[in-house]
Amino acid sequence: ILGGIRMATKTFAGKEVEIDSEGFLLNPDDWTEEMAPELAKEVEIDELTDQHWKVINFMRNDYKEKGQIPTIRRIKNSGGVPIKEIYSLFPSGPAKKAAKISGLGKPQGCV
Predict the structure, then answer these.
(1) Mind listing the pLDDT tens digit for each residue in 54-70?
(2) Of 102, 73, 97, nearest to 22 (Cα)?
(3) What predicted TM-score, i.e. pTM, was given to this entire model?
(4) Which residues are catalytic?
């Protein structure tokens, strides 16, 4: 409960977690790798490939180091995944979808 407002919860991979109104995990530390495929299905990605995991792992590690969700540009420059590939892996809103699957909050600048 946050400021008297009861947060929504959802169960992924058998673990109940708090989510915001758009389904993003409120606490990135609640995330487990087992949740990723279920989170992916919510954003219409049926299967996570090694390249998906490359982006997910980069985002999680970068978030731990920097304390903020990496931008698409940062994923391209530091994560070594070309922009075109990021858009094909996470179509229609790659930053938002990748952050959600990675158990991170909604990226700044995402509408």
Answers:
(1) 999 999 999 999 999 99
(2) 97
(3) 0.90
(4) 110
